[in-house]
Design brief:
It is a single chain. This protein has one domain (43-169). Strands 4-3-2-1-5 form a five-stranded antiparallel sheet. Helix content is 25%, strand content 20%. With 179 residues, the chain is of the alpha+beta class. It has helices at 2-17, 81-85, 117-131, 149-157; strands spanning 43-50, 60-67, 74-79, 91-96, 109-115. It is globular. The protein contains four helices and five strands. This is DUF3750 domain-containing protein. It comes from Pseudidiomarina donghaiensis.
Length: 179
C-alpha cells in the first residue's frame, strides 16, 4: 500500500512538473487592457503572470506597458532572461496594441492601472528611467536581476506610480541594491 502511494505521488509530481511546450503556449491577449484605438487617454499598466512551467508555482513574471495620449499602440518594457543567452540585452521594449498577452499560457493579472493626466505626466519619467536601467544586459533568476527587478527598479525611480509588486515577484528586492 505504501509503495503504491509513493509511486502515485511520484507520478503526480512528475506530471505536475512537466512544463509543456512554450512554443505552443498561449500568447493571446487576455482582454484586460484598454484598447488603444478606443481609449485615447494616456495609460500605464503593470501586469504579472505566473512564470512558465513549474516556476509558476511560486513566482511571477512582471512587465510594464505605457501608452501616451492618442497613441495607437502601447510600448511594453520587460526583462526576458533567454535574450541574454542569445547575446541580446535582457531589457526588451516593443510596440503592440495588446500589452496584456498571456505569459506562455498564464493569464496576466493587472497589478497597476493609471489613466489620464496622471499617466501622461508619469510616462516620460518611466521612459527615461527605462534608459537608465542598470542591469539591462544581465539576468539571474535568483536573486536577480530578473524580470521582477526591472519594474521594482522603475517603481523606485518613479515613486508616484505607487507600484507594489506581489510577494511572488521574486527578485524584486534586488532593485534595492546599491549600485
Amino acid at each position: 500500500m505504501v509503495k503504491n502511494l509513493i509511486i502515485f505521488i511520484s507520478c503526480a509530481l512528475l506530471i505536475a512538473c512537466s512544463s509543456g511546450d512554450w512554443r505552443t503556449a498561449s500568447r493571446e491577449p487576455a482582454g484586460i487592457a484598454p484598447h488603444p484605438t478606443t481609449e485615447k487617454a494616456a495609460v500605464i499598466e503593470v501586469y504579472a503572470a505566473d512564470a512558465f512551467g513549474w516556476r509558476g508555482w511560486f513566482a511571477v513574471h512582471t512587465w510594464i506597458a505605457v501608452k501616451p495620449e492618442g497613441a495607437a499602440e502601447y510600448t511594453v518594457h520587460e526583462v526576458v532572461g533567454w535574450r541574454v543567452n542569445r547575446g541580446q540585452p535582457a531589457l526588451y521594449s516593443y510596440q503592440t496594441a495588446t500589452p496584456d498577452r498571456y505569459w506562455y499560457g498564464a493569464k496576466p493579472e493587472k497589478i497597476l492601472s493609471l489613466q489620464g493626466e496622471q499617466a501622461a505626466a508619469l510616462i516620460p519619467r518611466i521612459n527615461e528611467a527605462v534608459t537608465r536601467y542598470p542591469w539591462a544586459n544581465e539576468y539571474e533568476a535568483v536573486p536577480g536581476p530578473n524580470s521582477n527587478t526591472f519594474p521594482a527598479w522603475i517603481g523606485l525611480q518613479v515613486p508616484e506610480l505607487g507600484l507594489q509588486l506581489p510577494f511572488s515577484a521574486i527578485g524584486s528586492g534586488y532593485a534595492d541594491n546599491d549600485l
